[in-house]
Fold:
Amino acid sequence: MTGEIGSKTAAGEYALKVFDERWHRIVREALRIRNGGPPLYRNPLRRRSDLLAYMTMVLESETRGERRGTSRRP
Structure:
C-alpha cells in the first residue's frame, strides 16, 4: 500500500473495504452523488447526520493511528 488514493471514486471504494459496514450507506451515497443514480436517503437531515458521524469517526480513528474505522456512532 502506497498511501495514495488515485481518485475520489477510488477513495470511496477503499472506504467500503476498510470501514465498518455501519458507514457503507453514507459512502455509497457519496459515490452515488459523484456517479449518478437514485438517492439512498429520503431525508437530507439524516444524510447530514450520518455524514458528520462518519467524518468524526474518520478523523478520530486517524488521530488514534487506526487504519480501520470500526468505532460505531449512534
Q: What stands out?
A: Residues 23 and 54 are 7 Å apart (CA to CA). Residues 44-63 form the longest helix (20 residues).
